[in-house]
Predict the structure of Helicase ATP-binding domain-containing protein.
Amino acid sequence: MSKRNFISGDTINNMIKATTPDVLEVSVDLITKSFDGSKELRDYQKKDLAKLISLKRGANFSEQRTGKTPTIIMLCESLKQKVVVIVPPTLVHLTWLPQIKEWAGQEAQILFKKKNDKFYPMNVNERKALYEQFFNDPSSRYLLVSKDTWKTDFRSIVTEDKLKDCILVVDEAHYLKGLRSRSTTTIQADQVYRTSLAADRTYLLTGTPIVNYPSDIYGILKVLEPEVFGSWSSFVDYFWGFDFFNATLKKYKFPKDEEIIISFLKPRRVIHKQSEVIDWLPPVQKDLVTLDMENSQENAYVTEVNKLNWSKVPKDSEILGLLQRLRPISNGIFKDDKYLSNKFKWIRNYLKDIESDEKILILSNFSNKTLSILHDELKTFKPLLITGSTPQMKRVEYINKIQNGKSKLLISNLKCIKEGVTLDKLDTLIFVDRSWTPADNEQAIMRFLPPTKNLKREKNKQIIDLISYTTRAPRTFFNIDFKSIDSYIVETLSTKSSLSKNLNNMKFVDDSLTFTEDDEIMKQVIEINKTIAKAKIVKEYMKKKTIKKKRAKSFDKSKLH
């Protein structure tokens, strides 16, 4: 049944007409040097500044570590607007403090209070008092407020009229994809969207405007041109014929549609790739260490595999569930109150042999099943541990400690350090296991590399991947096809289930999120440890299915980046 009635007016014509945004005549001197004059924006950042300052609503889609933060701070300094409200995710918003201090020479206001050298979140009354001071007689023009706090305070404490002269900066703006659903994320995204309507200017920062699916771009488009883009249903209807599932695939319905979105974004955004602007990255030695499992660990691994009936082709959901269970087993298992792990054994021996001044970062996706245990196993090395439950201020404290050389070993969940963190003073990065999404791994690696060419290092960087390996499993298990996933499987699963989302992430690990050219390690990880790094469907199973729909044109996400 057609749902074309969801489109309001000539949506597509409005989009085409709006491809050239209103360009403002800005008669101000652009400030390009830091407050003390010791640093200056690079040439490409100066061009970005000149373009963005001419837009009321703009976006910076440059990749990580290309200097989005200094550029936007210098834009705010050049405009000398009354106040600047910066709304990033909770876990990274305090990382803005040193940047604002360095480039603007101001101490940004934060919704924390300090007591006994520790920071604590302000209560409602304390936040009200800070907002009142900030919008009436600010001691600093910059306010940092996490999107979680802003979700609660905007309109209940801070009214729209206070933002009429404000510059709104949305960091990690890809969370605006939440405008399309009714989850908690939507409340956060919706409050930021309504703030953008009230603010004088709005700027969006993200290196990944599309996280998983092309429809993720809707929230960003809506903020950039709220009068052009209507509802989520209208957006999906035009591009996918109201087929929500296809909206979650990396495809557009017609070739022209992709070009429409790209032509719309081009005059409203600036974009740079790391490879184009960062020419000072140090040599990185990449090592892949393949380890035989401990006997008990291998037995547990094979036992888990044998729980499926391999005399017939298992269901796709059974294979996916199996691979999810195998991942933590490949790191280690408990037996007789003792944790047995080939990877932990290797790490202990490695730490005994390294130089005394070498600083190490160890990453895994599993906090409770891997990292907490590893932290206890390595107590003699006095490691710091960051997981999802680590308080924000404690994370900042730990990162500062290892950056300043007061600690030598940091163990962290991969997702906790992929955004808004700098760990460039560390020497070695060890992946106990990688994410199924290559973009997460690449973001983590970029946090480990130096942000400026002035940083002098005597040592090269090193990245180590630890891979468990076994040949003990049913032959059918090793015949799982890791490259021939048919669209039938994706189209028969509900997109609302976490199972389907995980399957999509793994399905596109090769062809949608391209590896950097020199990332041979990740390719080897996938090839050697197929059963752990990716989930695919048995080839024989796929041959039984018939594809009734023609494949749509693949969506080239790189054109948006």
